[in-house]
């Protein structure tokens, strides 16, 4: 394992009676990487999260946190792991400082380090001014920060966040996303979410699970390429014969949309060549090119394609 691989998961599998909920999931994540873990309802996200946080025993497979086997040495492995569950167990009647101090004790941080660890986690999570406020009186956004502060209190290598922005208002969402982005610099972060925009804005890697199996795992940029325009909507005042358009370099097919409108479908990776050829030929041939619109797929469309159709690919390691 390379030094910077902070979490390694191999062949993780979980049966619930006769039901196979997670089927051979494997991936690695390095320091500085933020992994978005996506999937439709019932795909196996929570089951996977619970297994990699040591809260549910796998039927098969291994999890290593910073090279330590989670099943063989759970206490040591968990000491390097921070977890924000979907509903963090906050005590509303405690102040932020009391709660974080309590968490630090549960984490068995040495007494002399507790005060400093609490102050640092508070600082990193934008809680510097609310140490003496009762958790029950804080806004939901601030409570979520407290949840994140308890997850990073012991400076774990791996931070796992389950739907961290659910129920927050747009400003709180932006702030929490910024915080997660910052955490990503020093830790490996795994983020379970339903929100594709969230993955797009903060994750470096993305992984999609469907029916318990990884169907897609790639760097974020690769998912962006999948969404890149593969078609151009074109309006030509004096269109040439369809065959002439179909013969342009990089064009796979032509779909007529009306008397002067059509859609050009490109061959893989040929979008720019085809667009350039079209513009040159249109100018030279007097085709009267008045509209040229690249049609990008939305991330939602790519997600649906990956989680429903036959387009799914076998999982590859995210790192
Ligand atoms: N305790 C359980 N007993 C039996 N089946 C379960 C149990 N927990 C989950 N399942 C089943 O395992 C599958 C995966 O569930 P899981 O909760 O991991 O999915 P998920 O991706 O987290 O879904 P959601 O996004 O809805 O939370 C589902 O079919 C679910 O019904």
TrEMBL record:
One function term, GO molecular function aspect: ATP hydrolysis activity
Q: Name one Pfam family in it.
A: ABC_tran
Every ABC transporter domain range: 7-236
Q: Domain of life, per the record?
A: Bacteria
Return the InterPro entries for the record: AAA+_ATPase, ABC_transporter-like_ATP-bd, P-loop_NTPase
**Per UniProt, which keywords does this protein have?**
ATP-binding, Nucleotide-binding, Transport
PROSITE patterns assigned: ABC_TRANSPORTER_2
PANTHER family from the UniProt entry: ABC TRANSPORTER, ATP-BINDING PROTEIN (PTHR43335:SF4)
Family as reported in the entry's similarity comment:
Belongs to the ABC transporter superfamily.
Q: What is this protein called?
A: ABC-2 type transport system ATP-binding protein
